[in-house]
Amino acid sequence: MTFRAPAMGTPWSGWRLFRVRGRSMAPTFRDGDIAVGRLPGHGRPPRPGDVVCVRRPGELQMIKRLGPRAADGRFRLSGDGPASAPSIDLGGVSECQIVARVVVRVPGFRFGARRRQ
After folding, report:
1. pTM of the full predicted structure?
2. Which of 10, 26, 30, 102 could form a disulfide with 6 if both were Cys (CB 3.0 to 4.6 A apart)?
3. Are 52 and 92 in contact (CB under 8 A)?
4. Do 104 and 35 touch, CB atoms closer than 8 A?
5. Region 65-84: what's the mean pLDDT?
6. Within a 10 A sphere around the Cβ of 11, how many other Cβ atoms?
């Protein structure tokens, strides 16, 4: 789920909020967290080791960690958690497929059963 930032020229210009779904980036990001992303063209470009939100044709947006660049210039992708698909299965992305570079994690609401007091 993507939350749209206000229009250009506001203090939020160049930023986007993303809700984290799933466990593939645990423990860095947990299901329900909010990831604050810096849009391309704002701040420094992404580099290996950064956490980014990417979109590939025909797929949902995903939050993954960038690995080294391959000879074709594409970044390898990986998840931080054991629930993530292996990096060989995730493949790579070009810089134009990076939606945002994630710079902050805001702990979110945790879904699930709650014990009554």
Report:
1. 0.79
2. 10
3. no
4. yes
5. 91
6. 8
